[in-house]
Amino acid sequence: MQVTELSADGLKREFRVVVPAAELDAKANARLAELKDRVRINGFRPGKVPVAHLKRLYGKSVLAEVIEQAVTEANSKIVEDNGFKLAMQPKVELPQDEAAVNEIVDGKADLAYTVGIEVLPAIELGDFSSISLEKPVLEVAESEVDETIERIAQGNRPYAPKDGAVENGDRVTVSFVGTMDGEVFEGGSAENIPVAVGSGSFIPGFEEQLIGLKQGETRTVNVTFPPNYAAANLAGKDASFEVTAGQVEAPGELAIDGEFAKSLGQESLESLKEQVRARLAQEHAGASRNKVKRQLLDALDGLHQFEVPPTLAAQEFDGIWNSVRAEMDAQKKTFEDEGTTEEAARADYTKIAERRVRLGLVLAEIGEKNNVQVSDDEVTRAVVERARQFPGQEQQVWDYYRQNAQALASLRAPIFEEKVVDFLIDQAKVTEKPVSKEELYAEDEADEKTAA
């Protein structure tokens, strides 16, 4: 086998590989000799079939297998001999001319092909101890606990039937049929749905237009689906609903006391407050970690600047761009509406894609160099947690992940990333800064675009 490097352009390499016909023939004969003891052919005793006869029967198919194996072995040797770390699987370009292919398969010509390889860059890790991070801290205020319990109480308060029209705060059972441009659309109709008017649980504008309805009355409600509505085919679109009111109910009084706490499965009002306080503290800690993580990623990006594999960057860009375009189409917006052009947006998101790939490579390198491991138990817990999100389908979800290596890897990857982030935070200089709730949960455009 002869290997010649044709080009080296950044992280891309191209090689020409020639495997002599005699070498392929020798490997094919060895393979046929192995088959001799296993095949059963009429007229021959087991193990006594001449190799020449086998070659007439199976020669071309065996040689095709040998060629495939030779290509795999040659590519592996190129990678091993050069110490490459591959960014993508090698791109093999075999001869396409039918006559040339037949010559190779018939054993009359050498196998010659080119292979393109894209390699990972050599990454020189920075000094993590030089990273300074500011950790926002928000203590759970007693007023926040009380407000949360009040919301819980509002959602659990009793209702009693009433005469008269719907008022804000009432609950009304409705049936409706939704249309767009006069046509009924899928998912736009329902029967006997309870609506707590003023809760904000329905499409904006829907609940307010129910005020004044009486039981048995029908009214047309006109709304516009939010731009970020979950169903992309409805996002940002206008719709009309023919709504018929059923039973109208007024909210009753609900005392926030020990009995209320017991109705929620708690021993006392104080234990309910402790549970709420713990949940709020967990939410604040999660938001704080996200802020710290974004600072950390910004710092890593500043410490590590290197060329990223073009194909990986292109794939990342395609994913981002398709998402952006889908969202803009749903919102019926153009780049001009956003104060930019498609060309400028492409350039912007290209940089974001490259940053994401670069940070992914840096985190992977840090994890490898510092022996960060994800245990099988941690992955199993992630699978169990995922299965719990699909009540009644737990076994199907479990089987899917246990039988699908790529899906399992998609659960392992974020666990690995978080463990590397934990390692880096331990290495960095972290100072705490008390913040308001508004500051802790504020999201700016830079955060949304650069989050990796």
Automatic annotation (TrEMBL):
Similarity annotation: Belongs to the FKBP-type PPIase family. Tig subfamily.
What role does this protein play? Involved in protein export. Acts as a chaperone by maintaining the newly synthesized protein in an open conformation. Functions as a peptidyl-prolyl cis-trans isomerase.
Quoted from the entry, the domain comment is: Consists of 3 domains; the N-terminus binds the ribosome, the middle domain has PPIase activity, while the C-terminus has intrinsic chaperone activity on its own.
Q: Where in the cell is it found?
A: Cytoplasm
- Give me the reactions it catalyses: [protein]-peptidylproline (omega=180) = [protein]-peptidylproline (omega=0)
Any idea which UniProt keywords this protein has? Cell cycle, Cell division, Chaperone, Cytoplasm, Isomerase, Rotamase
Q: What range(s) does the PPIase FKBP-type domain occupy?
A: 169-264
Pfam families the UniProt entry points to: FKBP_C, Trigger_C, Trigger_N
Which InterPro entries does the record associate with it? PPIase_dom_sf (IPR046357), PPIase_FKBP_dom (IPR001179), Trig_fac (IPR005215), Trigger_fac_C (IPR008880), Trigger_fac_C_sf (IPR037041), Trigger_fac_ribosome-bd_bac (IPR008881), Trigger_fac_ribosome-bd_sf (IPR036611), Trigger_fact/SurA_dom_sf (IPR027304)
Q: What is this protein called?
A: Trigger factor
List the Gene Ontology MF annotations in alphabetical order: peptidyl-prolyl cis-trans isomerase activity
Tell me yes or no: is Cell membrane among this UniProt entry's keywords: no
Where is it mainly found?
A: cytoplasm
EC number(s) for this protein?
5.2.1.8
**PROSITE patterns assigned to the protein according to its UniProt record, in alphabetical order:** FKBP_PPIASE (PS50059)
